[in-house]
Structures are given as structure tokens and as C-alpha cells.
Amino acid sequence: MAHPKRRSSNSRTGKRRTHWNLKPPTSNGCSNCGQQKLSHRVCGNCGYYNGRAVVEETNEI
Ligand SMILES: [Zn+2]
Questions:
Q1: Which residues surround ligand 1, an ion (CB under 5 A)?
Q2: What contacts 15, CB < 8 A, 6 or more positions away?
Q3: pLDDT value at position 16?
Q4: Residues lower than pLDDT 70 in the chain
Q5: Domain ranges for the chain
């Protein structure tokens, strides 16, 4: 069976895993209501996307 000739050192493993970190999703303010929202997503507060209402406001039940 194929087998590694040398064990990878702790340093080498750590260097490989430097790219494992996760970045928080970028959020910015809604252009309509100013609430924090994720970019390229419909605003959860007012339902606006790209300057127009995409989703009806669901404040009532
Ligand atoms: Zn909004």
C-alpha cells in the first residue's frame, strides 16, 4: 500500500490549516430601511431588494 515516507510535522500541519478559518458573512445596511442585512439577499425587515419590494411585508399573522 502507498505510504508516506515522512510524517508531517506539527508545524507543517499547522501551516496547512492556516486557511481553515471562517470569515463572518459580509453584511451592510439596507438601502430602503437601513437595517443590517446580508449582501445579495432580500432585506428581512422590509422585503426590499435592488430598490424595489420583492417580498410582501409580513408584520401581521
Ligand atoms: Zn430593508
A1: 30, 32-33, 43, 45-46, 48
A2: none
A3: 94
A4: 57-61
A5: 25-61
